[in-house]
Specification:
By secondary structure, this protein is mainly β. Helix content is about 0%, strand content about 45%. The chain is built from no helices and 48 strands. The relative contact order is 0.10.
Length: about 675
Amino acid sequence: MKFNLKSWSLGILHPFTLTLVLAGAFIGSVLAAPDNQGKEFVLGFMENYDGGGTISFYLTGPTATRVTVQGGGFGPKTFPVVPEEITSVTLPISLRASGSGTIENKGLLLSARDEFVVYGLNQKEFTTDAYLGLPTDVAGTEYIVPSFSNAKKTLPSELQIIAHQDGTEITFTPKKATVKGVDVKSIRAKKSAHFTLNRLESIQFKAKGGRLGDLTGSVIISSKPVSVFGGHQCGIVPNRALACDHLVEQIPPVNTWGNSFLTTPSASRTGGDIFRILAANDGTAVEIDGETVAELKKGQFEQVDLASGTFHHITTSGPALVVQYAKGTSVDDVVSDPFMIVIPPTEQFGSSYLVSTPLEAPVAFDNYLNIVAPTDKLTGLRLDDRSIAVPFTAIGNTGYSGAQVPVAIGAHTLRHLSSNVPIGVYAYGFANSDSYGYPGGSRLAKIAEPCTPTETVQGDGLDNDCDRKIDEELLNELDDDGDGRIDEDLAPVEPPVANAGGPYTVNEGSSITLNGTAASDPNGDQLTFAWDLDNNGSFETSGAAPTFTGADGPSVHTVTLRVTGSAGSSWASTTVTVNNVAPRIEDFTPANLACFSETNPLSLTIVFSDPAQLNDTLSATIDWGDGEPGEVLTSGQPIEHDYGYISEDDVSRFTVTVTASDEDGGVSSLSKEASVEGGVCID
């Protein structure tokens, strides 16, 4: 499944269309829970390696809208967003952050009347990474930031803070000392600095010192919501591996963190992946596959190296953030480099995503989707509306399985046929000394906050039963989540999805079986099928696979399938092209004449017909093969021909050809040989 991509620069429209997009999002409004769709975003770009390259936003959405981009002295500029299209906005490189401890006007506001999705790409050849934008309605006031250790003094761990409102007071407590700036002096490790940011003002901090400098675990407390980005100017993973790569993610606020995480290995790699588990509270126990590996204080992290080809389950006793880091290419001599992906907790999984690869230029990546889903629900997974053929690996005794799926450059849809089945997806790719990675999408409900049970409303996006799951039940009088309760936290009711198949082609007079069995229902309902085969608005034909007979061609017919489930109906149309078929001429055999006689002419009865049920007007002629003018035929009526005298002892052979045509230009012919012996017949 591909979508058009329209590329824009601030103030400049580039008149070309591509078919590629970047990053991941929920499709439409399948999930009512807070997620990465929104009407307003405050975003930015951290410093990349040695300047240069490009910074871009990619915009898409479930409905047509117009997105306004402004900030940093640029704009406002407005860009169209069209469903099933991705709009690319290339920004001035001057909007990248620079320095440390210096307040800058480099925050960017993106806004629209309708919800949309945005991704940020910070790209330079050999040092690229991307992030999934998080809307302002899920922003928080407490963040703990993941990063990675300094590669060297000039390639530091870094983070960025951007204010949404004027007068935002910030308390920043770095895990390691920071580089001094114009507005904030060097902050000693675990000491706090206080400063104020106004709307769209930003500040970047870099870790001071050599390889021990690492801002992971730094705490940001704000008086008003802010956007926070964490990563590295050009990180080396692990230390002393080659080569460095830009690392970035927009960090979710602490109140959205979870307790259960499923890890998947990077495809094509043999040297393993690094994972960091970052704790929100003191006394957070960490288990991997049921074995305790650490107990963490607030802001502490546990780093583990998990072997390639292995899938694992990480659980924590309190809210935590898990981040996956791909290693540098020198670790296993595989085409690759570091990336950084925030791994959404299973509590924040959705059931439908739009995910894509970066553009082919300037770097063409080998692209992958890592997918996790309940093992007993794998048959309901659809990637680009097709079943997933690659093998899945069970993840311990979690009831989930994972797979690594290579994908082509372009946009891809991932969904489950049932709206209450939670699935996760992580997108990434490798190129020569380069890489990218980001979560394919996520809910962002405030599951780490205290919960009070509430009355359920279908698709309300709330944890009605306070089990840290959202909308996990279908309205079916069954205990879908196995907690002993029925219909207590209901998923949104989605209508079925009709799929009429086709387009189809059939010859006139013949029949073809239509196929509506690809229709699906997100609620698991058994569907009823009805077809309008004559495009009159009436659905008279039932069944998933009716027969369509081509009455007359050439013609094109629109047929429509209606599927109905408990949540309503949906329709899908396709076309049936009926090809014209030339008239049929029944076989005939001229009698051989043994002698000449005026009373013994060659007599034939030719039958020809139209295959169409609505008979065309036909015409036919016969050429006797002796140079005489052809004669007009009437189907089923005898016709005679006298070949004249032929010398005794001679045998003459004549090719008799019948040609029939219809009013649509179809022509057919049939030729047979007739022989006449010389001499006069003796009466």
